[in-house]
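dumping this here so i dont lose it
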């Protein structure tokens, strides 16, 4: 029983850190991994550094794990069932999707009018197209041949380990 509780607590702790860290790969939206890493660390410390001393100790890690466990243990019986774990995962996925949609909208709504029009969409598509062409068009002729497409390394999220925002992938 203790091993099962520990295993579930450990899994939930990793889920919690993943929830904090798994908020996007592209950092500032332009492939800035250092900025992305800094954001992940900031979120982790905001979530786990309860006393604000700039360090996460064993008690703070345990408290974060316990909080995540309690949030997943819907009926409060001290055990997380498979159904409760699935529900927690679905909540996490929904929260993440909402945050990603908000970030995407903020990037696309260039003029800040609260709506995304065709020109803003076209601008975003154009920028994505330019990044793709730089990555794939090996000879720089403005065309992508089958050979160039096959030789290009896969974009993250399309067979790779990490996805970016909205199906866009960092260069």
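and the seq i came up w/
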């Amino acid at each position: 029983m203790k091993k099962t509780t520990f295993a579930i607590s450990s899994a939930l702790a990793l889920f919690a850190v993943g929830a904090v860290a798994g908020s996007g790969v592209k950092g500032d939206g332009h492939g800035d991994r250092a900025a992305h890493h800094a954001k992940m660390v900031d979120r982790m410390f905001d979530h786990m550094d309860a006393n604000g001393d700039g360090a996460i100790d064993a008690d703070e890690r345990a408290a974060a794990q316990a909080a995540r466990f309690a949030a997943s243990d819907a009926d409060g019986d001290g055990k997380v069932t498979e159904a409760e774990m699935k529900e927690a995962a679905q909540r996490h996925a929904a929260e993440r999707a909402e945050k990603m949609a908000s970030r995407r909208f903020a990037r696309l709504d260039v003029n800040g009018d609260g709506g995304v029009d065709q020109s803003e969409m076209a601008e975003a598509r154009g920028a994505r197209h330019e990044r793709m062409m730089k990555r794939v068009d090996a000879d720089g002729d403005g065309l992508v041949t089958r050979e160039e497409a096959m030789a290009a390394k896969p974009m993250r999220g399309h067979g790779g380990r990490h996805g970016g925002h909205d199906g866009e992938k960092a260069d």
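Residues 1-30, 157-171 have pLDDT under 50 and may be disordered.
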